[in-house]
Amino acid sequence: GCRSKHQFVRSSVGPFFISLILSDLLQAIGSVMNIRWMLIMGVEPGHFCIAQAALKQTGNLGTALWSLVIAFHTFSLLFLRRPISRKLSCITFFAVWIFLGIIIMLGPVIIENNKKGPFWGVSGYWCWITNSYHIEQLTNEYLFMFITVGLSFVLYTLIFLRLRGNI
């Protein structure tokens, strides 16, 4: 039969993959913004700095979350041998983007306080969550990355063993 050139985008994994690529793009844009700091030979607080921090955090966290979603999707298909329904795919897509938005906005809207200063700002050689919010650097970003790495390792190891016929 004739296959649509947009079939991948309409598949259950298509939106997840596109979201992963978009998250990577946001992180890359945030990193390219470092050119400004090189040109002025320093990092300065301000709107540009806040934009870079938001892009980097959104990109990093989004990449972690979408990688994990794809790992679970792959696990469901290859280990459990159960395809993801269109409904579950749509729910997952919107839930992850909403969750990502909530986590990103928690810092500057709820966590930020006058005692510690701005949530997003100068953080070493670029702008990100400032060093005054060290715990939030761990919980709002690194924790998700470590969970993604750990769970992905377990899921892909199980898939590998299943495909080899060991389990």
Automatic annotation (TrEMBL):
GO terms for molecular function: G protein-coupled receptor activity. Keywords: Membrane, Transmembrane, Transmembrane helix. It is a multi-pass membrane protein. The chain crosses the membrane at residues 12-33, 63-80, 92-111, 142-161. One of its GO terms (biological process) is adenylate cyclase-activating G protein-coupled receptor signaling pathway. The keyword Disulfide bond does not apply. The keyword Protein biosynthesis does not apply. It comes from the Eukaryota. PANTHER family: G PROTEIN-COUPLED RECEPTOR 157-RELATED, G PROTEIN-COUPLED RECEPTOR GPR1. One of its GO terms (cellular component) is plasma membrane. Signal peptide: none annotated. It comes from Sphaerobolus stellatus (strain SS14). This is Glucose receptor Git3 N-terminal domain-containing protein. It is found in: Membrane.
